[in-house]
Write a structure and sequence with these properties.
The protein is mainly α and about 140 residues long. The chain is built from six helices and no strands. Bound molecules: zinc ion.
Length: about 140
Amino acid sequence: MTRTTSELALPSPNFRTTPTYETAFENWIRGFVPSVDTKTLIKSKYLIYFLTGDGPFPCYLSSFKILSSALCECGSLGDPDHYLFDCLMTRDHHLKKPSCEAKSLWPKNVMSTAANHEKLVNCFKVSRAICDRLSRM
Ligand SMILES: [Zn+2]
């Protein structure tokens, strides 16, 4: 049996009536991965960090009480988006933020260009160092 893309589409997050971090994150990731694609295998743990938010980020680590705050050292929310596109401490490794229309192509573009993947890796190495410093405070 062959399934169509629409059959594999992610379920709607309408089961919640109030916006939460989880629903905001679900909406955010749908911009990059609008539906399940059984032909795509993500081999980079750093891209998985970015797409899931589960990685060396104050936002993630504070949800487990590993860090006391979800904020970066610069005072902004320490999520993957912040480190890859905005934080001054990772500016040497920033990638261009995709437009809403280009988000679904962004993960493949990052993986197909070694220099872009290297920026992603280096950016999250810096975010790990930031988390290490924050954990010692
Ligand atoms: Zn920052």
